[in-house]
Amino acid sequence: MLARAARRILVKAGDTIVRLEGPLADAEAAKYLVHQDGFLRVPVLVIGEVLVRGYTDALYREALDH
Fold this sequence. Notes:
Layout: E1 8-13, E2 16-21, H1 26-33, E3 44-47, E4 50-53, H2 57-65
Parallel strand pairs: 1-4
Antiparallel strand pairs: 1-2, 3-4
């Protein structure tokens, strides 16, 4: 799972951004990254040790600025 290597995880959840420090256990990662049907239904960006789930311009700027 990509989340195992992530040390910083940004998740767009509705109108908010959840910021997590990794590594996450598989169950916790699945809670934030996987849709209820078991699939990823949103963009996922991995940049080194940063993982981003979801997309907004501001979210990608935050991920790319670090």
